Amino acid sequence: MSTLAGTLQPTRPATGPVQRLVALLLVGPGPYARAFENLILGLILLSVASIGVGAIPTLPGWATAALRVEEVIVVVVFSFEYLLRIVAAKRKFAFIVSFEGLVDLLSIAPAFLLGLDTRWLRALRMLRLLRLLKLQTHILETTVTERTRELAEKNALLEQAQAQIKAELEVARALQIAILPATFPLRTGCDSAARMLPATTMGGDFYDFIELPHGQVGLVMADVSGKGVPAAFFMAVARTSLRGVAAEHLTPGACLAEANGLLCAQNPLDLFVTVFYCMLNPLTGVLRYANGGHNPPYLRRADGSIEALTGAGGLVLGAMPGVEFPEHEVRLGIGDHLVLYTDGVTEAFNAAYEAYGEERLIAEIQAHGDGPAAGLVERICHSVTAFAGAAPQSDDITLIVLSWNYTAAVLQ
Amino acid sequence: MNVRLETFGLTTVVIPAGRLDFSSANGFEKQLELVFAGAGTAPAAVIIDCAALEYVSSAGLRVFLLAARSSQRAGVYFALCALQPAVGEVFNLSGFNRIITVHADRATALSQVPQGRA
Fold first, then answer.
1. How many angstroms separate the Cα of A49 from the Cα of each of A75, A120, A166?
2. Which of B22, B29, B32, B58 to mutate against chain A (most A CBs within 10 Å)?
3. Segment 273-312 of chain A within 8 Å of chain B by CB
4. What is the pLDDT of residue A353?
5. Which residue of A has its CA nearest to B67?
6. CA distances from A190 to A3, A308, A374 (A)
7. Quick check: A314 pLDDT over 50?
8. What interface predicted TM-score (ipTM) does this complex get?
């Protein structure tokens, strides 16, 4: 099959006149290639029929003459076609010795070898019956060409559809990232930076900064279970729900409980989301928080010590209605850094399936946590991506660093 | 991830081995659905022995949540046992240990299956 199809491929772009002829008559598609194909098929049938007629001993003289003319035309056209096929073939010798090459040759060879010498003609006349084989290879070739073209058309359609889906997913992904806030509310005087490195497939990490009554600021770090379009939708619902309840409830625990109720009521796919939610009073540095199944953030004190905000947490949101979320409080000092992250950081795997882990994260925070927030975010991102190396990033990597500065808050 | 099944009376013990992450979660979800449906008769109790389960991502947690829901609907006793420390930490952190029963080892889990079901 492959050699048949192979003989039809042009060796190079149709530049010369012969190549153009090959492209026009043999390779197609087009009206000339179809007409040439039909001409060959017609001549094969005609020549086979004439062999039968020629065997009649009492044929009148005019009929014998007509048969000779017919034979000359057939041989000329077949020879022309044979030469074209040799030109068209990628590997010419392989074509000449291939089955269809030999059939083509044998169907014209007797005429060239013997001329019209009737002594041998009778004996070798039967060789011309080989033209029936030519018929077979022709039909086979036509079928293969047609199937190849059909396949190519279907492939092109599939590729087109896939490209469209991919483009739409990329737009969705870009939208998903674009709705994340770029900056922390400036008037709080906090130095903060956030960064999300999206995974190759659509993930469900998100964070949010929410301006609250009485000058307070709400911070959300969240991770939706699963991936793809369902996770993206659930993320949008979760983010909107949290924003809505944050404005109405004075405590983080009440916010998570209320948001959990909303999410459980609109969760057809049984997804859930881990949420760390805290409210910062920029004037006092007091941070109140509640944790819905999320990785506890790290707090690096100005003296370099590190503690995790491990106060007892609650369940992930969306899994079960009616659960409570315990609240905790911690006071930030000047120069302290709060690091919120998703498990995409600690569970970034390298090629050997080793996780980045908490120890490495703590070491980075310890080493680079005394400068600007943006610097620490960059350091951690760099450290994680360097660790993962060429291994594919299967989960979003999201980070927020926040450092509180009392003087700045008062001066604002 | 590989999953093996063992049967003790009417209790089915599911033994997953390897990493339960986004790529294996879907397959495991389908397998658990089959376990709850049962071959002929539905099981009276399903225990997931996690001794060989090395890692559970949030997509994996979702499968456990769905299994807990299925068991509730079907009135089947459902518990996990023998969690490796890293997996136990994920259960602790996410609060899942509060909505899904977790036993220290398989023997304890089997002994806790309510009477009249095993």
1. 15, 21, 58
2. B58
3. 274, 292-296
4. 86
5. A270
6. 72, 20, 12
7. yes
8. 0.84
Which of A221, A227, A316 to substitute to test the interface with B, most B CBs within 10 Å? A316
Q: How confident is the model at residue B84 (pLDDT cuts 50, 70, 90)?
A: very high
Instruction: Choose the weakest-confidence range: A55-69, A284-298, B5-19.
Output: A55-69
Residues A135 and A253 in one domain: no
Q: Are residues A187 and A116 in the same domain?
A: no
Task: Check CB contact under 8 Å for B62 and A343.
Answer: no
Q: Which two tokens stand for residue A91?
A: 């590997």
d(Cα A391, Cα A408) in Å, to the nearest integer? 42
- Could you give the 3-state DSSP secondary structure of residue B114? coil
CATH number belonging to domain B2-111: 3.30.750.24
pTM value? 0.71
**Do residues A247 and A142 both lie within one domain?**
no
Arithmetic mean of pLDDT over chain A: 84
Instruction: From A120, A140, A156, give the residue that closes a domain.
Output: A156
Where residue A124 falls among pLDDT bands split at 50, 70, 90? low
In a domain, A168, yes or no: no
pLDDT in tens, B4-32: 999 888 899 999 999 998 889 999 999 99
CA distances from A123 to A45, A58, A117, B20 (A): 21, 19, 11, 78
* Residue A355 DSSP label: B
Q: Is B30 on the interface with A (CB under 8 A)?
A: no
Domain interval for residue A47: 2-156
What's the pLDDT at A408?
Answer: 57
Give the span between the Cα atoms of A171 and A331, in whole angstroms: 41
Domain contains A161? no
Q: Would you state the pLDDT for residue A322?
A: 92
